[in-house]
Amino acid sequence: MKELKVSPIKHGTVIDHIECGMALKVLKILGLTEEPPEDTTSVIIHVPGSKGCKDIVKLENKELKKKEVNQIALISPDATINIIRDSEVVKKYRVELPDTVIGIVKCGNPNCITNFHEPVEPKFIVESRSPVVLRCAYCNRKLEDVTANLL
Ligand code: CTP
Ligand code: ZN
Questions:
Q1: Which residue in 79, 91, 120, 139 is deepest, having the highest Cβ count within 10 Å?
Q2: 38-63 pLDDT, tens per residue?
Q3: Which of 42, 47, 56, 89 to mutate to test the pocket of ligand 1 (most atoms within 8 A of CB)?
Q4: Domains identified in the chain and CATH numbers
């Protein structure tokens, strides 16, 4: 029987080793759930592999911004970013969660100073990477739902 495979891309970015089931959240981070992409985009969910399962997102003709990569690190710390040119992987790197996360997620505490009108950017200390645990540098509250609070 002929097996159907998702095509390789020519130019663009492959986000590989996304935590199983998180691909749709990656699309949300990239703004593609509101504004559909203009170029070919493949989303593969639950790809079985040697280390369990993973998701993959393939974006033709797209490069990621640093902020988007950091946001992906928050929800999928083992993801890899592969830059493709002329169908070859020319660069591969793992997303990396910094020690502090500034301006990417907002604090869940409505009384936190970062949720008032003063120009105070939200800042979190990364307490743990696996699982990701963030604590607000201002009010000390632990962030319960990272994805729901993405800026
Ligand atoms: N890929 C693609 N189009 C290309 C080249 C690669 O879609 N023209 C995809 C591959 O399918 C894979 C990812 O980009 O999902 C990384 O490719 P590659 O480095 O060749 O695969 P691996 O060596 O298996 O990567 P890793 O070691 O990071 O798992
Ligand atoms: Zn706070």
A1: 79
A2: 999 999 999 998 889 999 999 999 99
A3: 89
A4: 12-94 (3.30.70.140), 100-149 (2.30.30.20)
